[in-house]
Amino acid sequence: MSLRRNRLLPVCAAVCAFALGACSGSGGATGSSGDKGGGDTGGVIPLADAKTVLRNYAAVNNAANAVQDGEKTATVESGALLSQSKASFHQYPAWTKKEQAESEKPFSYPVEGARFYIPPKGSADFFMVDTRITGEGIDEGRRRLLAFKQVVEDKAKSGKAWKAVAVGEINGALPAVAEDGDGFASPVATADKVGSVKAGDLVALSQDFYVTGGKKAAATFAETDSVKAWKKAYANRASFKDNCVDGEYEAGADGADTAYGVRTKDGGALVLYDFGYRYKNWGKAECGGSELHLTDLPAVTKIYFGGRTTLLNLTRIDSVMAMAVVPPSGKKVRVTGYRDQLTYAQ
Fold first, then answer.
1. Tally of CB atoms within 10 A around 48
2. Would the pLDDT of 24 be above 50?
3. What is the rounded CA–CA span in Å between residue 319 and residue 88?
4. Of the candidates 139, 146, 150, 169, which has an alpha carbon nearest to the alpha carbon of residue 61?
5. Distances (CA, A) of 299 to 62, 181, 211, 249
6. Tens digit of each residue's pLDDT (9 = 90 or more) over 279-289
7. Dist. CA 64–CA 72, nearest whole Å
8. Between the CA atoms of 196, 198, 199 and 205, what dihedral angle is there, to the nearest 10 degrees?
9. By CB atoms within 10 Å of each CB, which of 145, 174, 263, 313 scores lowest?
10. What's the longest Cα–Cα distance across the chain?
11. What pLDDT digit, counting tens, does each position of 130-166 carry?
12. pLDDT reported for residue 256
């Protein structure tokens, strides 16, 4: 994935705007978790190996981004993160020259100053790291939280590889991560509860903001900028200039619907999770239900239509990756940021 690109997302009604022909208008401490005691032997991965995984991930990303090579990226990414990367490469021809050049600039994740959150052996199949991201044009001090999972590469040979499966931007201070006496982090997987909520529940609850405006989810989440944007997307689902286009969101399995987290000292958790949604549009019956004219679609959406200029219905399929701070109660979950990636349109 071109991880230096971090565009925060227009509301979908604007992104997907188009014309309807019948009418007039047309996103621990340094080296911790395994750095104490016999640290390099008791974690899901030795600390030295975790550092190598992080370095290699940036190096392979840079090589893949330079030539938009999804298969190369697949050697270091999996799940929704890989789907987003491949979608970005597919849309690359539709980007501006400036965006293309920006995506190809190399970046690094320095291990110096990085915080590695490594669970004890046998407790999880992933680890997390809080690290700086550096490179030309990248703001000093910018940080990310990444999750790496041990993924089966070749079932016949039982081969496994550590691959990045989730990433989130760190904005501001985060709660301190809890560690045991040996410096290991306590993992939070999809089915694990933090207070009243399972980490995996964040998937469907976040989708609910798009589908209903948050009728079920509002009681669980704090009103952060990310949640406000999701609610605005729902409110604007049919906001088109000519009032002749309708729209709705549906929950979609277009992410991997997974969650990865670590518990914090206050009893809460830091969680990276992903989910998918589908945004559908069609002509309103009162306007004649005419074909949708695609003249106003953004180029990254048009690229999926092979030159077609009209459709009866339009569906945009998106994958969202979010980062959340979950309090000990499981209530007032703070979504601190998210990345929304168009993965397909039809």
1. 12
2. no
3. 12
4. 146
5. 25, 53, 26, 21
6. 999 988 888 77
7. 6
8. -80
9. 313
10. 72
11. 999 999 999 999 999 999 999 976 655 556 899 999 9
12. 66
Provide the CA 298 distance to its chain's centre, in angstroms.
Answer: 21
Which residue, 157, 170, 162, 70, is CA-closest to 115? 170
Which helix (H) or strand (E) segment is 275 a member of? strand 269-283
DSSP state of 113: T
Residue 3's pLDDT band, with cuts at 50, 70 and 90, is very low
Q: What is the pLDDT of residues 88-99, one digit of tens each?
A: 999 999 999 999
Could you give the CA distance from residue 117 to residue 126 in angstroms, rounded to a whole number?
9
Higher pLDDT, 206 or 254: 206
Q: Indicate the burial class of 192 (C-beta count within 10 angstroms; 0-12, 13-18, 19 or more).
A: middle
DSSP 120-172: BTTS-SEEEEEEE-BSTTPPTT-EEEEEEEEEEEETTTTEEEEEEEEEEEE-S
Using one digit for the tens of pLDDT, what is the confidence trace for 226-248? 999 999 999 999 888 778 889 99
Estimate to the nearest angstrom the gap between the alpha carbon of 308 and the chain centroid.
30
Tell me whether strands 259-263 and 187-188 are parallel, antiparallel or unpaired: antiparallel
| 191 touches 197 (CB < 8 A) | no
Give the contacts of 151 (CB within 8 A, at least 6 positions apart): 78, 160, 161, 162, 163, 165
Adjacent-strand bridge partners of 163: 149
